[in-house]
Each structure stands twice: as C-alpha cells, then as structure tokens.
C-alpha cells in the first residue's frame, strides 16, 4: 500500500498536487482562481484554512494554493510542496506596493530578482552575499505569454520585506534609489527554497498601491480583480 503523503500544514488526503503550483498569499484568491479558471477541480488542502485546489486549465493539470503572508509562511509551504509533494514549478502571484514613478495601479511586475531585508539566507551558511533570482525559463515564458496577450509588464528587481510598517522612514527612498520596482513580502524565500532544491520559481505581481502617489486598491479588488497576472501564471503550466 503506497504511503499517503501529508505534513502538519498540507494534508491532501490522497488528492493530486500538480507539478506546477500557483501561490497567491491569500487563500481566498486561490479559491477565486479555482472557481473562475479551472475545470474538474478537487480541493487538496483545508488545513489552517490555507486552501489548495487542483484542476485543469487548457487541458493541463495545475494546482493553486494560498501561501500566507511573509517569508516564514512562504518558506514553510514552498519547502513542503517541493520536498514532500514533488512540485517542480512554483509561481507566486501577489500584490505589491510600487516605488517607481512609471508604475500605476494594476500594472504587472515580474520579479527578475528579489532583494530582501530578511535574514532568511543565513540558514545556508554561504561564504558571501546571495542574490535570489527567478528561474529564467519561467521568466522568459511569462514575458512571452504577456506579450502575446498584449499585457504590458515591468521586469526587474523587487524587494521582499520582513517589515510592513517600517520604523525606518527613509527605507523606501533608499530602495527606490536602487531601482527597486515594488515591495512585497514572500518572493525571496521562494526563490531561495527553489534554488537550493533545483526547481523553478517565479513571482508575478500586480500593483495594489503606490507608496509615493498615495493610491491604493481595496481588499476585495485584491482578491478578485488581479486577473491578468493570474492568466499569465496559468499559462505557465507544464
């Protein structure tokens, strides 16, 4: 009798998890994607209400699961998906705060690199600095998909921050000056976990607020209206 794989955080109860998984932070966004885009859907996770689903998109099997907020949460879920459930392609789809003047609400950013103020990398005991980057195969394909759909995207460096409310009031100015496109909270951990395991990872973001223009979307809009990045990510299923 084959072993039924499960962890303390993911219990599929025998349901399939595809080799390509989309990882929105919000589990309700995962449900929205499953309800809106997937066919023949089964739910593989409800532990801690971190919903996970597997279905078919354009004839290809793909899963979607919430990852929670912050690098510790992303670190847990992505590690388990990779090492326990054999996932090969992990695509974060999330929101970010824009830093640059040429970015507007609902613009799409593809994170080529993920700078960070986190100490997550210390676990690897590397003899120097490490630059977390996306898998080029996924990045190249995502850009091609976006171009084919006519969706303009910005490709560049993002910041994965451990601090949402930063006591350093000059921090954003400093990152902005280094060309960082936007701030989110998970991609660097995903990129490091994937690199260490030899699998593929990518982060696709929608601008939910602009830090310098004082513009922002609502929580409902973040859950259900960021569909362009979802479509790009779904087309990356192998």
UniProtKB/TrEMBL annotation:
Q: Which GO terms describe its molecular function?
A: purine-nucleoside phosphorylase activity
Q: What is its EC number?
A: 2.4.2.1
Q: What's one Pfam family here?
A: PNP_UDP_1
Marked site: Important for catalytic activity: 222
In which residues is phosphate bound?
25, 29, 48, 92-95
Q: Where does a purine D-ribonucleoside bind?
A: 9, 184-186, 208-209
Q: What class of enzyme is it?
A: transferase
Catalytic activity of the protein = uridine + phosphate = alpha-D-ribose 1-phosphate + uracil; a purine D-ribonucleoside + phosphate = a purine nucleobase + alpha-D-ribose 1-phosphate; a purine 2'-deoxy-D-ribonucleoside + phosphate = a purine nucleobase + 2-deoxy-alpha-D-ribose 1-phosphate
> Where, by residue number, is the active site?
209 (proton donor)
Return the InterPro entries for the record: DeoD-type (IPR004402), Nucleoside_phosphorylase_CS (IPR018016), Nucleoside_phosphorylase_d (IPR000845), Nucleoside_phosphorylase_sf (IPR035994)
Q: What does this protein do?
A: Catalyzes the reversible phosphorolytic breakdown of the N-glycosidic bond in the beta-(deoxy)ribonucleoside molecules, with the formation of the corresponding free purine bases and pentose-1-phosphate.
Quaternary assembly: Homohexamer; trimer of homodimers.
Q: Which family does it belong to?
A: Belongs to the PNP/UDP phosphorylase family.
Query: Which protein is depicted?
Result: Purine nucleoside phosphorylase DeoD-type
């Amino acid at each position: 009798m084959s072993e039924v794989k499960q962890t303390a955080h993911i219990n599929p109860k025998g349901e399939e998890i595809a080799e390509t998984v989309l990882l929105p932070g919000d589990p309700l966004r995962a449900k929205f994607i499953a309800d809106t885009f997937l066919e023949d859907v089964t739910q593989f996770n409800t532990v801690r209400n971190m919903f996970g689903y597997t279905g078919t998109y354009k004839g290809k099997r793909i899963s979607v699961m919430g990852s929670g907020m912050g690098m510790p949460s992303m670190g847990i879920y992505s590690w388990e998906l990779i090492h326990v459930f054999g996932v090969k392609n992990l695509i974060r789809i999330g929101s970010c705060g824009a830093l640059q003047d040429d970015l507007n609400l609902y613009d799409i950013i593809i994170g080529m690199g993920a700078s960070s103020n986190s100490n997550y990398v210390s676990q690897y005991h590397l003899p120097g600095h490490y630059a977390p980057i996306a898998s080029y195969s996924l990045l190249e394909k995502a850009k091609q998909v976006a171009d084919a759909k006519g969706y303009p995207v910005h490709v560049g460096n993002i910041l994965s921050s451990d601090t949402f409310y930063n006591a350093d009031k000059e921090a954003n100015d400093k990152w902005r000056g280094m060309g960082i496109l936007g701030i989110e909270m998970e991609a660097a951990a995903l990129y490091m976990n994937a690199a260490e395991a030899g699998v593929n990872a990518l982060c696709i973001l929608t601008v939910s607020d602009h830090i310098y223009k004082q513009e922002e979307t609502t929580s409902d809009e973040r859950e259900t209206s960021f569909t362009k990045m979802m479509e790009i990510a779904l087309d990356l299923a192998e």
